[in-house]
Specification:
The structure holds 2 protein chains of 2 kinds.
Chain A lengths: L20 H4 L3 H27 L14 H12 L1 H12 L9 H22 L8 H4 L6 H21 L3 H10 L4 H8 L6 H34 L11 H28 L7 H32 L2 H11 L4 H19 L7 H23 L1 H4 L15 H24 L5 H22 L18
Helix pairs in contact in A: 2-17, 3-5, 3-11, 3-15, 4-5, 4-10, 4-11, 5-7, 5-17, 7-10, 8-9, 10-11, 11-12, 11-15, 12-14, 13-14, 14-15
Chain B lengths: L3 E6 L8 H9 L7 H5 L8 E5 L11 E5 L8 H5 L5 E3 L5 E3 L9 H5 L5 E3 L26 E3 L4 H13 L12 H5 L5 E5 L6 H6 L4 E2 L11 E4 L4
Parallel strand pairs in B: 1-10
Antiparallel strand pairs in B: 1-8, 2-3, 4-5, 6-7, 9-10
Classes of the chains: A mainly alpha, B alpha+beta.
């Protein structure tokens, strides 16, 4: 047998070769990062083994503050997971051409961070060994079951939605690299880039982009229902569904900006993740700042004006009571700081948007915290002791480990797959420039030789 | 079917807390100290709720209200349980299946009366208390929610007795430990569905009121107002 049947090797990747760099070359910095992240994760794992052995008594929880950090983490991480899929889907549907380099990094956030949303619920269980009772004895009247359903669907769909646009890039890896060939060959599903394959892929991506939006909205609505369906003061509110969705998109965009800035800096992708991307996302973030403020103001004003005593107790806990530092820090970091930075073109730089995003991330964690904890702190019936919830080292370690594990998964993803979609950039270069020019022309009146303009008759009429 | 419930006469209650102690012994509640109480880790299925009374301190009249689980007819806790570990049985008693509970504590946050308890650690008793637990009541493992069961085991015993003797259950044959221990007879227990029972009559008296009545939970523990 000769080698005559060997496939001709594909044309080398010249322009976008830098996007394969992280996959091909691994330096000492990578190992240092992984080591640091692993040690934080190790601490979290140790903390959890202590909790598993001793029970939830090792946390700061008690009666009546039955929920604390873990539930806050759950809401926070599920919120962050909104960044990716939802934003990417919306940008794809509206045909925003600047999306091409950022959609991948957004979609990865969704898939990776949702694991920690679910994980925190499991960490919070008193009997994690019995978690399958949720399936065995499923009771669909409970909002927690709604969560189980919608998060499972969301995880499946957003993973598919991440994978589909990844296929052509995996094929590029299969053809251009010698690393892990069996792995890429398997995942590329025989992609050769024929027009038919492209057509099918385009249809699938469009369909997924449309379906995933209502699913994403449902996920965070249902998360809010866990609280809103009870009759506890300042939880039992119809605004919670949309309020949580807005907060989720808000914190999600902030997380995306942070992730993009890190990728840009670490892998030197300044040519791909440009000022304009940060500027556009910054504008989106600014809009969300106002949306978030609108919802927050509506919620608190309604409570205040109605002045029901049980609600007002919780209201004052947040406004002037023990949770006032959290509350006012939240208002400053979620609204005043980002708006000041993002409103002006001069400060809406990469550094500016990153500072605003970090501020929002802190603020939104506090927001989740002061939704969960104060409503439980002052139950309707008076309590002999004032219980102050103070998280212990176990809860702090597990929180830190969640952030570290999320970062680690993200880093590992960038070492296995291109974090900027190569084929979509190529497609943009080759096809879209012409397409957009055509599209723009179609918006405008057809240019004809201008007819001689008739003089207006009876100009005074 | 009977509809078990009780009335608590606040004129007769002296806040002696015999009911709290009786419940503790009957239901194998682990003893806890002041430190646990400060962290919200004490187990008091029957708890004294302190209400600020009239007047200024130190002369203020402090009011204490004994609060078991109120066994609501529309229990908010039952609705939210994802695994059906808590339920309202045909007698109207809100029960808890310890061996099914996953410890998510959704019911504990949903209960407006904070009448549900969580086992933060494995319960323990100093010697020799551990040797004298009530054999009729299971000791709960760590990580599950527990609550007042209206001494459901006593109902089962009474039923078994009646069945063995081939007769109907007699009024007063089943009564929870708290009610039995009350030295002033402030607590009256019985079948609310029988209009002739004492508890039924008291529950319909002018003084009767329900705790947080406006929430629509329809508690079956009914209080009799003070000062008549």
């Amino acid at each position: 047998m000769s080698v005559a049947t060997k496939k001709p090797s594909p044309p080398p990747l010249t322009e976008d070769a830098i996007l394969l760099e992280p996959i091909l070359h691994t330096g000492p910095k990578f190992y240092i990062t992984v080591a640091v992240l692993l040690s934080v994760i190790g601490l979290g794992v140790y903390a959890y083994t202590v909790q598993y052995r001793e029970g939830l008594g090792v946390t700061g929880l008690g009666r009546p503050v039955y929920w604390g950090f873990y539930i806050t983490n759950f809401v926070f991480f599920i919120g962050i997971s909104h960044a990716g899929t939802l934003i990417s889907a919306i940008l794809r549907i509206v045909g925003a051409e600047w999306r091409r380099t950022i959609t991948r990094s957004a979609e990865v956030i969704t898939v990776m961070v949702i694991l920690f949303g679910v994980g925190n619920i499991l960490v919070d269980l008193g009997r994690p060994d019995r978690m399958l009772n949720v399936i065995k004895h499923a009771k669909f009247g409970s909002p927690l079951l709604w969560d189980v359903c919608s998060i499972t669907v969301y995880l499946t769909m957003s993973t598919t939605y991440l994978y589909l646009p990844l296929i052509p890039d995996i094929a590029i890896l299969r053809d251009h690299t010698n690393k892990r060939r069996w792995f890429y060959r398997l995942l590329a599903l025989g992609w050769t880039g024929t027009p038919r394959q492209h057509r099918i892929l385009d249809i699938l991506i469009s369909v997924m982009a449309i379906i995933v939006i209502p699913v994403a909205v449902s996920v965070h609505t249902v998360v809010s229902f866990v609280f809103a369906m009870t009759i506890q003061p300042m939880w039992h509110s119809a605004i919670f569904g949309p309020y949580f969705v807005v907060g989720a998109i808000f914190s999600g965009i902030a997380a995306l900006i942070c992730a993009m800035a890190l990728i840009r800096w670490v892998y030197g992708l300044g040519e791909y993740l440009k000022d304009i991307h940060f500027n556009n996302l910054g504008l989106l973030l600014l809009v969300m700042c106002f949306a978030w403020f609108y919802f927050t103001a509506s919620e608190f004003l309604t409570t205040f004006y109605g002045s029901e005593p049980t609600h007002m107790t919780i209201f004052w806990l947040k406004f002037t009571g023990p949770f006032a530092p959290h509350f006012w820090t939240m208002v400053v970091t979620c609204f005043f700081i980002p708006v000041t930075i993002l409103a002006f073109k001069r400060t809406r730089t990469i550094l500016g948007t990153v500072i605003a995003s970090l501020s929002i991330t802190v603020g939104m964690y506090l927001e989740r915290f002061i939704i969960v904890v104060p409503s439980l702190s002052q139950p309707r019936l008076p309590h002999a002791e004032d219980i102050v919830y103070t998280p212990t080292w176990v809860e702090w370690s597990i929180l830190a480990a969640c952030f570290a594990a999320f970062t680690l998964l993200y880093v590992l993803f960038t070492k296995l797959f291109p974090i900027v979609s190569i084929w979509e950039v190529q497609e943009g270069r080759e096809k879209s420039v012409a397409e957009v020019t055509e599209r723009l022309k179609s918006y405008l009146p057809k240019s004809q030789p201008a007819p001689a303009r008739p003089e207006p008759v009876g100009a005074s009429k | 079917m009977a509809k078990w419930g009780m009335t608590i006469d606040l004129d007769r209650c002296t806040a002696c807390q015999a009911c709290v102690t009786a419940c503790q012994a009957e239901n194998n509640l682990p003893p806890t100290g002041a430190d646990d109480a400060r962290r919200g880790r004490n187990y008091t299925w029957m708890e004294m709720i302190p209400f600020e009374g009239e007047g200024e301190r130190p002369k203020a009249i402090e009011r204490l209200l004994p609060r078991p689980c109120l066994h609501c007819d529309h229990p908010p806790c039952v609705k939210v349980c994802p695994v059906g570990a808590t339920f309202r049985n045909e007698d109207g008693i809100v029960g808890q299946i310890f061996s099914r509970c996953i410890g998510c504590r959704y019911c504990t946050t949903a209960c407006p009366y904070t009448a549900r308890y969580f086992n933060w650690t494995t319960p323990s008793w100093p010697e020799p208390m551990g040797k004298h637990l009530n054999p009729d009541v299971s000791v709960r493992p760590k990580g599950v929610v527990e609550k007042c069961t209206l001494c459901h085991h006593r109902l089962q015993n009474a039923r078994d007795h009646a069945r063995a003797e081939e007769r109907a259950m007699r009024p007063g044959e089943y009564s929870p430990a708290c009610v039995e221990s009350c030295p002033t007879g402030a607590m009256v227990f019985g079948d609310l569905s029988n209009p002739e029972s004492e508890v039924s009559k008291l529950a319909h008296s002018r003084r009767a009121y329900k705790l947080l009545e406006d929430l629509g939970t329809e508690p079956k523990v009914i209080y009799l107002r003070e000062g008549d």
